[in-house]
Write a structure and sequence with these properties.
Blueprint: H1 2-13, H2 15-18, H3 27-40, H4 55-68, H5 70-73, H6 89-92, H7 100-104, E1 109-111, E2 116-118, H8 120-131, H9 142-154, H10 181-191, H11 193-196, E3 203-205, E4 208-211, H12 229-239, H13 250-260, H14 276-284, E5 295-296, E6 299-300
Antiparallel strand pairs: 1-2, 3-4, 5-6
Length: 306
């Protein structure tokens, strides 16, 4: 019963993300962001009501639709069960959940991940390839134009090249004693399983996830930023459990992030010669804190899952 109630609560909270994907009609969420922005002085993105009724407005609406309902809007580009909005919450608006307005004005930028200057389109392609375990849209495709136009619109009035408060996910320092997988398992059972389910595979209504999977074949792959325990801890601490962001201690956030990322997920698409150890050395050895290519309880992590 408790599980059902919590599930229903969360279902209504994310209804814009899963049920009514096209229109941005949920003004309650927009106001929530607005009032939070006013008190915490985050960038205030424009409201849907401000959108012009012309070709530009249509392109913004299209980008919004793709962002919140990716799997159904561009199924050929998505290889898992996720939508962009699952990690960039409240329609890409929420401060401290990697909001698009915090991202847009910071590109082009150098990225260590691929050792070159990335355009905004290339950054989005990265999330398609890894976070969505999919196929990146071409830089000049309509999908990319739509996502870029949507981001540009959310960033209206923001200064260019200035890191805004609320960008990305706030850092969570690594606990002195490191992380503890057994404690993470406990946190997971007590605070996460009710929505993401005991087996971490999420929960569906019909074809679509209402609670996204945290591991398994429909999750982000081993090349995604979220596979780093440090990155996952930052997202989780600020945003999870849903509706109770900021309630976990730093230790709990690291423990549960490590527990989540000690489970199998789709293979890193950059796999070198079909060899996990070579891939670990090339792409994971200097990529934050992660378990790819390591052994947990005698089992090699990073074997991938189809
Ligand atoms: C599994 C979670 C996840 C999903 C799904 C996801 N992303 Fe991301 N995204 C991330 C993470 C993690 C980062 C890095 C944030 C950071 O720098 O701390 C990121 C970064 C970004 C950035 C750059 C942010 C910045 O401030 O520089 C953009 C733009 C972006 N994602 C767009 C998208 C788009 C578009 C989609 C859907 C096609 C998507 N993401 C899907 C997790 C995800
Ligand atoms: C009340 C339900 C609920 C609880 C409890 C909850 N989550 Fe979530 N979680 C969600 C929903 C819904 C989303 C997608 C958010 C969106 O689309 O706006 C999500 C997204 C995520 C994501 C990013 C998307 C993905 O699938 O990779 C991660 C990681 C995550 N949650 C981890 C956790 C962890 C760890 C806990 C426990 C500390 C937790 N969640 C507790 C509902 C919940």
């Amino acid at each position: 019963m408790k599980k059902l109630l919590v599930s229903l609560f969360a279902l209504s909270a994310i209804s814009t993300a899963v049920a009514a994907p096209i229109a941005m009609e949920d003004q309650s969420q927009l106001k929530l962001t607005a009032s939070k922005a006013a008190t915490e002085q985050y960038h205030l993105p424009p409201l849907e009501a401000d959108l012009p009724d012309n070709a530009f407005g249509d392109m913004v609406r299209k980008g919004h639709a793709i962002f919140v309902d990716t799997k159904r809007q561009v199924p050929e580009l998505v290889g898992n069960g996720l939508n962009c909005v699952n990690c960039h919450m409240d329609q890409g608006r929420l401060a401290n959940a990697a909001p698009l307005w915090g991202a847009y004005t910071m590109y082009p930028a150098y990225r260590k991940k691929n050792d070159k200057v990335n355009t905004y389109a290339e950054r989005i392609q990265g999330c398609f390839q890894f976070s969505m375990n999919g196929t990146p849209p071409a830089a000049d495709s309509e999908t990319m134009t739509a996502l870029t136009t949507f981001s540009y619109w959310l960033a209206t009035g923001a200064p260019s090249g200035v890191e805004l408060p609320g960008r990305a996910y706030p850092d969570v320092p690594k606990p002195e004693g490191g992380y503890n997988l057994a404690q993470g398992k406990k946190v997971y059972a007590e605070q996460c399983a009710v929505c993401h389910s005991e087996d971490g595979l999420g929960q569906k209504v019909g074809e679509n996830y209402v609670f996204p999977p945290l591991w398994g074949k429909d999750s982000f792959n081993w090349g995604a930023g979220m596979h780093r325990i440090n990155t996952a801890a930052t997202f989780i601490k600020a945003n999870m459990p849903l509706g109770k962001g900021g309630t976990l201690s730093d230790q709990e956030a690291w423990d549960v992030a490590a527990f989540m990322n000690s489970h199998e997920r789709p293979q890193d698409p950059r796999l070198v010669d079909g060899d996990i150890e070579k891939t670990r050395v090339k792409f994971h050895a200097n990529d934050g804190v992660n378990l790819y290519g390591e052994k947990v309880n005698g089992v090699l992590i990073g074997q991938g899952i189809k």
